[in-house]
Amino acid sequence: MPTKRNILMVTAELAPWAKVGGLGDVAQALSAALAGRGHDVRVVLPLYGHLDRARLGIRPLKKLPPLALRVGQKVHDVRFHVQGPPAGRLKIYLVECEDLFAGRGIYTGPDGKGFADSLERASLHAQAALLLPRLLGWPVDVVHAHDAEAVPALLYRDHWYTGRDLPGPAATVLTIHNLAHQEIHLPDRVLDLGLPRSLAVYPGLLEFHGRMNLLKAGIASADRVNTVSPTYARETVADPAYGCGLEGVLGARGAGYSGILNGADDEVWDPLRDPHLAENYGPARLAGKDACRAALADELGLAVPGNPGRPDKPLCGFVGRLVHQKGVDLLIPLLERLVGDGFTFAVLGTGDRDLEAALDAVAARMPDAVSFTRVFDEALAHRIYAGCDLFLMPSLFEPCGLSQMYALKYGSPPVVRRTGGLADTVVDADDAAGTGFVFDQARPEALLACLRRAEALWDDPDRWAALQVRGMGCEFGWSRAAASYEDVYLQALEARTIRA
What are 445-499's pLDDT values in tens digits? Predict the structure, then answer.
């Protein structure tokens, strides 16, 4: 049995109520899996303005008094809250600050632009997180930060705290969910973090090509760094297109940088017991999926040609952020042609305004064949995974991806590009162990050729059903990933001992 650890999770997202992308799902599921393995896990999250405190059971932590924290030249009033029942190893703390979080979302405002005070928000979040161990009398073994927004917690641990000031060894781990988001600012903004100006000037830890780069500093300073799939870890070191300028910094970490494939939460994503579906089903009873397809088509106003139990062509689903990374640009030019061939599409997502407008236009021209829902709707996402026959995920890059795992679990073979976690989780149908359809080149014609292969296999119901059953049998639970993180924590603690 692994040694039980006290783990402080610092994250800007936590599903289901503070979620923009996969980070929210991963932070919640990983924390729960580690707690289930006996670790004392405490998650620290900002108390965003959109959170309904009464509905979510968020209440003030009365044993801790209000605090005043300095960020840059301003002092902010802070109060800690907790969510959920007090018992249990997983505890969720929320940081209230009217000045920085009230009435505001996670990363962007209604105009889609990032907040000008993102550094101040990150600084206050990190300061509050690192105060908790001392305030609670809780010695922390590992401070686990997620993505660039949480990196100040790692910097403050090294620059503000000694072993006596922060109870416990407090080894540091950084998990990179998306290397493209680095928090790059002008060097003078280092003062907003309360750190010395020298750190943002060469050869300072934060300096990178004349700018201040939070993610670079986190990679260089954390005791251990990981990303969310083995293939993405290799890609980000070997190829500047994936490394986003930080491939050299990552490569310099050597064995201190690794890839751990995310899991999928079986408690939430299971077609046998999903409460959002018209009919539950599983690999031994696939007929329920036909009912889910019919219900989805009726809900979205799609006219699916052919027998309701076996359409002439697959109904294709897409759930995700509408950004160039997700390969939406590859799909949009093909929609009209594929609709002419009998395909139908259910698209759910928000993001880039131009991509939203392009999908709006296609859906307006062909409402019976293309449905576009431009909101975040978790229940509808579940129904799309269950009701579609093919799930489209033609990402230009994908650190891990969770959607393809959900699609496999729901018997909806994914169509993916061979990159990152997609390459680690989907086996092409041409292989005897195939679970989906894989293409290589990031071009619309490559995606079209892949869909043509899927179309040909669709015409063989027995082979299609076998493909579905193999995918539904894939094991993506969090137990494997949690065990790998336990190894990383041990390595981080050993590295911290050497540094001390």
Answer: 999 999 999 999 999 999 999 999 999 999 998 999 999 999 999 999 999 998 8
- Tokens 């924590």 sit on residue: 489
User: What is the three-class DSSP state of 380?
Assistant: helix
Q: What is the pTM of this model?
A: 0.91
Q: List all residues 6 or more positions away from 254 whose beta carbon is below 8 Å from its beta carbon.
A: none
Q: Which two tokens stand for residue 170?
A: 């407090």
Q: Report pLDDT for 1.
A: 60
Both structure tokens of 134 = 């001392």
CA–CA distances in Å: residue 134 to residues 44, 76, 140, 208, 272: 14, 20, 9, 33, 44
> In the predicted model, is pLDDT for residue 340 greater than 90?
yes
For the chain, the residue count is 500
Return residue ranges of the chain for CATH 3.40.50.2000.
6-263+479-499, 287-475
**8, 142 Cβ separation under 8 angstroms:** yes
CA 47 to chain centre: 19
Q: Which CATH number fits domain 6-263+479-499: 3.40.50.720, 3.30.70.890, 2.60.40.10, 3.40.50.2000?
A: 3.40.50.2000
pLDDT bucket at 45, cuts 50 / 70 / 90: very high
Q: How many CB atoms lie within 10 A of CB 472?
A: 20
The CATH architecture annotation of domain 287-475 reads 3-Layer(aba) Sandwich (3.40)
